[in-house]
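Entries read sequence, tokenised fold; example below:

***
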Amino acid sequence: MRTLCASTLIGEFFVIGFAGLVAMKDPDLSMATVWTVSGVAMVFCLLLCGMITRPGGVQLGWALQVALIASGFVVPTMFFLGAVFAALWWASVHFGRKVEEAKARFAAQAEAGAGAGGKVA
């Protein structure tokens, strides 16, 4: 799960950076505000890559997805991109957990086979 979720977060890192570039063109927003918000969100993406397997990591990822969708109020394209990344996040979590379960089953079978003196191919 960690690899899939981290890949999604790295993609979001770049999308947030590009959204910051687009938001800079809004005359109502100061450059400092745009880059403070974008920078914090980008750093949060990177930190979250290492926190995925810790308690609350997935929930923080969902909070980031909500914030990404909400950023559509500043950069309208982000409504679409945020929804796409929320779907990717769901898929990363869902299928990542399935892969972990399959790995655990395989390891248990391999251990049971090795413990019984049998060979595992």
Observations:
- The mean pLDDT is 92.
- DSSP finds four helices and no strands in the chain.
